Amino acid sequence: MDKKKLGTRDAKTKPAHGKEEKTYKRPLWVKSGEEELCPDCFKVVGDKSRYNMVCMLGKAKEGMTVGELTEQVKLAQPTVTHHLNMLRSVDAVESKTRGRERVYKLNRDAHCFEECRIPFE
Ligand SMILES: [Zn+2]
To answer: Which domains are assigned to the chain?
Structure first.
């Protein structure tokens, strides 16, 4: 019996998305979490403004519209939409329609937050 395996987070057993791909070093602006990030997670945090949006959504329990995000991150709306699409492509963010608006919420159960422990608050 190899006791080390019990309860140890072994990076080699972690390719939750199937592929054994290269990893990326966690950027400086992400204060905790795994040191080595999978490509999906790097998509989420690799761009500082994108990660900034993740943190804003993490605090906004009811979610935010593109308009609200645009106002707060001080980026052009197409840029915000682009970041949101990237985040949705890895399931970090989900969107719902509320009335005539589309509201974006952080998907707290996503791989990035559950497995790679990227902080979002
Ligand atoms: Zn990951």
So the answer is: 22-114 (1.10.10.10)
Instruction: Centre a 10 Å sphere on the Cβ of residue 62 and count the other Cβ atoms it contains.
Output: 7
75 CA distance to ligand 1 middle (Å):
26
Q: How far apart are the CA of 30 and the centre of ligand 1, in A?
A: 13
Distance of alpha carbon 14 from alpha carbon 38, whole angstroms: 9
- φ and ψ at 114, to 5 degrees? -80, -50
CA of 92 to the centre of ligand 1 (A): 11
pTM here is 0.81
Cα of first residue to Cα of last residue in the chain, in angstroms, is: 39
**CB distance 33 to 54 below 8 Å:** no
Residue 50 C-alpha to ligand 1 middle, in angstroms?
A: 16
Q: Running along the chain, 121 residues long, what does each successive block of 10 average in pLDDT?
A: 48 54 93 94 96 97 95 96 97 94 96 95 81
